[in-house]
Design brief:
Length: 199
Amino acid sequence: MIEGPPARDKPAKADEIPLDMEELRAIAGYSAECAAATLDIFERFSPTDSRPRNAIEAARTFAHGGKRGKALRDAALAALKAALASDDPAASHAARAAMCASSAAYLHPLARSTQVRHILGAAAHAARAVELTAGETVDLGADRIRRAARCATPQVVDVLRRFPAAPSGGGRVGELLRSLDRTLRAGALTPSASEHEAS
């Protein structure tokens, strides 16, 4: 049995972040939508490979109340295998975005910068996929990051701000990750709670 994060009413250790299951569901839902936006990039190159789509659906199922268990882990691993099998770099990153979506449920309540990848990894890989479809057009990646910032709910931003800033490294995907991280922490481009309620 896979245990969830510590309940909020339990005393936290020095390096633990307060985190509950509903917040994990919000992170998974956000990641799934970021990945879904570029799923077509993968499916144009591998129309019969459903692994990334299945990973996104697994993340959505969890976000809407499904179990946090083996099916999510299996879906994430399958999407990663699809990414590794792809000969197209853009398609590979689109599949990695799907992998990140289904693994977002496993954000650990630890004060580690690397945990930010569980929150924003899907958006960063999706942005990289868009860049690569247009021959390394960084303006398109930056635009995708702005869209991802606008899609982040106040709950997602609140969770992000509990963790240290995104880590260094990671090549271009790492740059995109840090750009989104800075934008969300600064409160730039994020809609208000009332806008989310109206949508």
